[in-house]
Structures are given as C-alpha cells and as structure tokens.
Amino acid sequence: MEVTTDDDDLLRQFLLGELPEAEHARLQEACFLDATLQGRVLAAADDLIDAYVRGELTEEECVRFEERFASTPEQRQRLDFARQLARATDRR
Q1: How far apart are CA 68 and CA 41, in angstroms?
Q2: CA 38, CA 31: separation in Å to the nearest integer?
Q3: pLDDT tens digits for range 71-86
Q4: Rounded to whole angstroms, how far apart are CA atoms 22 and 38?
Q5: H-type helices in the chain, by residue range?
Q6: What is the rounded average pLDDT for all residues in the chain?
Q7: CA-to-CA distance for 29 and 38, rounded, in angstroms?
Q8: What is the reported pTM?
Q9: Dist CA 51 CA 53 (whole Å)
C-alpha cells in the first residue's frame, strides 16, 4: 500500500481506529514492510499526542485517542511528558 504525502488524514484515522477493518489491516501490513511509512506513522502519532494535550481534538477523537493511547502505563507516561512539554512551551 502506497501512502502519499497527502494522506495525513488516513494516518490519523488509522491511529484512531477509524478505518474499515480491511483498510486498517492493509495499512498495518504496509507499515511492517516499509520503514519510511513506519516512520511517518510514528510521526503522525506524535502529532496526534500533541493535538490531544493541546485540546485540539474533537470529543469523539478524544475518546478514541484515550482508548488507544492511554491504556498502558508507558503510554500514560508519554502523555504526561507531552503535557509537561506543552506547558513549558506555552510559558515561553
């Protein structure tokens, strides 16, 4: 599966679990085979975390985000770090 630079929305939907199952599976498989795509997904996840801590997601996106990105202690620690970084940046 080739993902173009215009597919940031697709990556966001993938991360939030909003894609149809077959499309999600294709993209997931493509991530295993393409290191560049894997890096783009990781960057999109970072962007999504930043958007969450800055309150830029819709209510529905927040629910989906919390289901996927705040379910383990490691993920919650990552979120806490992002919150602290956002606060420090806002103070400047």
Answers
A1: 14
A2: 5
A3: 888 888 988 998 898 8
A4: 18
A5: 8-16, 21-33, 35-53, 59-69, 73-91
A6: 89
A7: 10
A8: 0.82
A9: 6
